[in-house]
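quick one before i forget lol
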Amino acid sequence: MKHTSHLKAELILVLVTIIAALGWIFSKEALIGLPPLFFMGVRFLVAGFVLFLVGQKFFRGMSWQGIRQACLVGVLFGITMMFWVTGLDQGSNLGVGAFITSLGVVLAPLVARFMFAERPPMSIWVALPFAIVGLGFLALNNGFNFEIAHFYFLGAALGSALQLNLLSRFSVRMHVLVLTAIQLFAAGAVLLGLSLLFEPLPHSISISVAGWFLASTLIASSLRFLLQTYGMSLTPVSHAAVIMNLEPVWTAIFAVFWFNEIMSAGQVFGCVLIFVAMLVSRWPQIRSILRRVRAA
């Protein structure tokens, strides 16, 4: 029964990575008719409200300290998403952007080293050369020259690493659905506030853009986080962490079929190296999974 539960959870989490990858497609299409910060701000506020409606019972008895900590992480999440959506709006290759953004899992222990004097595991030092060389190959499409969007995606990866560190430090004691909803509310408020300050509001929205916005909000945000919460409740975090590495792979595949994106051989090799770096950085979790498989 336990094995069946784990298999069900892992299939759900694979579906989550597919939905997350589709979110890149939905968002890119929505940005055709919406300002980036406005799009993300409204998207997160609506998605957070949907999660609140679904999980109202989990919002009872929350401590103000927990709410403040969740809001702080949410503000950082909003800044991270500002970098991400700007890169998405200006970038020419979603697959490359997805692999650069995914470096957050490799950078997180390094950020902890500088912020909290924590010693990274040996797997991170082994993964780092793969990540650096991979980034180098991603820049070799037109000579050694990063697109400006690549720097935004790197900013998003660093923001993600900071967010992971704050979450682990705060140890916020609340249901993960509540934590996600508060983070979305805080991030949405930050992004919408920045949009009102720096972006012109759209005078009208076409039906197609509205459809992509709803898909981004209800499918790629609300449904994704609901499924992710449920899946992670059924399997060890180590399993979930490894499976979530599939998101950039799916994103690259979908971008090829949807936008006819083409990577050079060097960029493909760079993506492979970054994926290897992600797996190597997760080696302790992978080793734990392999032990359980052998024991079964």
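fyi The chain has a mean pLDDT of 86.
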